[in-house]
Amino acid sequence: MAEEVKKRVFSGVQPTGKVTLGNYLGAIRNWKPLQDNYDCLFCVVDLHSLTVSQVPAELRKNTLDLTALYIACGIDPDKSILFIQSHVHEHAELAWILDTVAYVGELNRMTQFKDKSRRHADNINMGLMNYPVLMASDILLYQAEYIPVGKDQVQHVELTRDIAERFNARYSETFVVPQCLLNKAGSSIKSLQDPSAKMSKSDVNDNAIVTLSDEPDVIRRKLRRAVTDSDSDAHCVRHSADKPGVSNLLNIYSLCSGESVAEAERRFEGKGYGVFKDAVADSIIAVLEPIQAEQKRLLADKGYLEAVLKSGAEKASRIAQKTLTKVYRKVGLVPQIR
Length: 338
Ligand code: TRP
Known about the structure:
The structure is a single chain. By secondary structure, the chain is mainly α. The protein has two domains: 210 residues, 3-Layer(aba) Sandwich (Rossmann fold), CATH 3.40.50; 91 residues, Tyrosyl-Transfer RNA Synthetase, CATH 1.10.240.10. 51% of the residues lie in helices and 7% in strands. The strands form two sheets. The protein has a three-stranded parallel β-sheet with strand order 1-2-3. A two-stranded parallel ribbon has the order 4-5. The chain is globular and about 75 Å long. 41% of the residues are buried. Tryptophan binds next to strand 1, helix 7 and strand 4.
């Protein structure tokens, strides 16, 4: 009997700055269970990081840290393809072709581009504007069907769909049109200092985010400083629209402890915010400590990491090469005689 062909999943995180608890709960954590049912590729998207200014040595370190983190979070290199984007040159090459299909107008309208242009006004480079096209290239190269990402990336996946459909219409059926695999609960983790904004690794206020490398005492301190709400119901641990700060902490607690929000509300009834915040911190620490230990162990084993990355890049390249060859032929480029 023919082996069942699994649908393909692709996702990636930039090795820029520190991965936050929001990135983990909203994206990376949900990758592990996908590995059994899908044919997964998980990529460290280092080329994307270059769209904001980087210190080269730090980018190199962050890239290896993130690779180890993927594995520590349960990505199994024997089940999934784990690789670094720049190791597979087809990403940049397909991006060029897709650049001729994407419109300036639609890239100019991207929320993240507008946002980053505001925050990096001194460095609005072409790469920043092109960022979503490179992301489309990541996804379309592998004919991925499902893209597990946080809410903030939905617009980019939609643009990828538009580009794929436009290319298919212009040059005949070539790309699988992908869709988001959204994790509702985890994709809305907010800043600890401003619960109207998402927890973002580019936040300038260090107290607003928990990073995956934070030590337990740092996590406790940040949680103690987290903004709560000063409504008439002060010190009542309840999930509601008029208590965005407390609701965010309840979401985090629920995701880290596995307890439902309703159960948590009952547990902390009448206990006050101090006790509650310490419990949220403890639930985060319980999740992060084993990951941190495993990441550290992996980073000390350079040979293993290099072997994983070498084999990941080889496997990814085989798929990418096939797609790019097809695309070059469809758009009318003369094949090279080898
Ligand atoms: N833009 C994504 C983010 O910032 C990272 C990314 C790049 C990505 N290429 C991708 C995510 C392809 C999913 C699929 O989170």
